[in-house]
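Q: Structure for this?
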Amino acid sequence: MARTVPAAVDLRCPLSNPLDPKNRNCLTARRRFFVLCNSPESPPRVSDRSSDPRRKNSSLSEQLKPLSTSTLSTPRTAEAHALKSKPKSTWVNPARPKRSVLNPNRQARSQHSYNPRMRELRLFAQKLNEGEFSESSFLSVLEEIPHPPTRENALLILNSLKSWQKAHLFFNWVKTQNSFPMETIFYNVTMKSLRFGRQFQLIEELANEMIRDEIELDNITYSTIITCAKRCYLFDKAVEWFERMYKTGLMPDEVTYSAILDVYAKLGKVEEVLSLYERARASGWKPDPVAFSVLAKMFGEAGDYDGIRYVLEEMRALGVKPNVVVYNTLLEAMGKAGKPGLARSLFEEMVESGLSPNEKTLTALIKIYGKARWSRDALELWERMRFNGWPTDFILYNTLLSMCADLGLVEEAERLFEDMKQSENAQPDSWSYTAMLNIHGSDGNSDRAMELFEEMPQFGVELNVMGCTCLIQCLGKAGRVDDLVRVFDASVNRGVQPDDRLCGCLLSVASVCEDQDDFLKVLGCLNRANSKLVNFVKLLQDESVNFEKVTEEFKIVISETTVEARRPFCNCLIDICRNQNLHERAHELLYLGSVYGLYPGLHNKTADEWSLDVRSLSVGAAQTALEEWMRTLSRIVKREEVLPQLFSAQTGTGTHKFSQGLANAFASHVSKLAAPFRQSEERAGMFIAKREDLVLWVQSQDPPAVTA
DNA sequence: GTAGGGTTAG
């Protein structure tokens, strides 16, 4: 495949037209062929799945069993009978489409005729919408209905009621009036309203009532039930109602079908989705943009780039033009699959096709550029947005601010923040303030951060736990411990619930406190949030406590901490020990951290090189790890065991503009130990020592610089 | 939101 044009744009089909009957039933093969042909550099993830034996139990054939055995197949027809009696006859006419799994015609909506009493009824509905009623007062107001609740009048009002509670009450009231027999459309309109309120249970009750009263459930009913279940995360219910529909002999149309495709997609059942998709395609279905959006979202969630290409290819082959939603989903998917360049080309393709991006398009792109650290592209896009007057909203602005925080773009962030304040549709909210606190916190501008903190109540914006964490970190770094205590107390009093990240932040501030009073003040804050952690710190400081006790308490504290915060906690605890001159405790903690899997990949060995990767360690933990490593090497040298040529320690360079150099701290510790590690010129963030130098150094340590 | 499906933030 030619690589001169961006792949996102250049997606020529490796096979002929899939609508050609010859190709109708071989989409799986096409997809696999496509994957193999077009992605030599990445593993064919889509096709991998079907061969994965672990997935056998949840395969589509299992999934679709109730459908394929009972309803989807032509049950006990002459055809099936003939096949049974003539098993050797396997020839199938390829020009004959497979039996349908969906109805090619979408269910028609009823036309509503002009209602001469529209004006009064609308006014009445408005009155019902605006008032706050108890159930009984609502029902008494209903008695004032200006015209009798005929079918048309009732439908008009039901359609106008906004809250699900009122719609439900009105629906039940109409039933009690007995002025006409209830029809499907009344249930459908009520269900739609209930779906806004995510009232699946009530929807299911209505559906069962329809079955009981023999009122027909149509495609609109089923798709509403299924999508409500989906929005309530009741995926099994969604599948249950879908299967039920088939069992009653009703064929889904494409709306219901793509709704259920989305259910399987949200369940992560990729093979099932593709199989459903292909079966529908084989029976002649031309998927619309909604179906492709479902597929694109699914592949995006899986980070499956081959799948994304498959979607693009299918659309191109079928001549389906992507709309804005499809482009947005594809862009997001490209981002999740880690393809910023392709996302950029796809965006250009979208604009060239004459579509205008909306705020979701731009949010997706900014996120992608930020993640890729493409600040120039991001800022150019921002300029282009302003120039073209492309739509913005507060989520887009907040995404831009987060990107600025990630890339250290302080001035740009302030400009954006000012724009938000001037805007009508994107006033700063707690996310915006969090991003700003993060930016100035990282920049070390504690004055500006405090200014933002003070102005928040004036604008009616609540501080959230993340903003609080950023500010605490900033004040801690600036050594403003009294302000820190004030901010912490005010935040907790304002309703901020400290989480493990905030605790980790306080712990890290405590670990850099040089003044003992400050140290105790910070621990005082931490005590309000996590007293067990503070007790553990005190236990570490008690030299009479033995290793067994430390192990026991460590296990308790760490197991009660969220997984993401465990390593930071351990890092900070090690730092605190080192600051308090409790070096052996630091070594014990590093050992415990390793035992409990907090430092995976710390040591790496090949025949030629042993390396220590301290990139996820704090300064103190990295120093401790280096000392520990040197102790081990001393023992190996003494025992005259085989050593590799090269030793390396990886500190990383820190991609963040504001990140403190772990490398610098490591370098000074190496020089303090007089260990023969040198910063590598070819490999950034890497310290190298040769075997000969290291052995000489170990032998010169008498007594060893790093005590055993 | 005038009976049903798909897309935005640590």
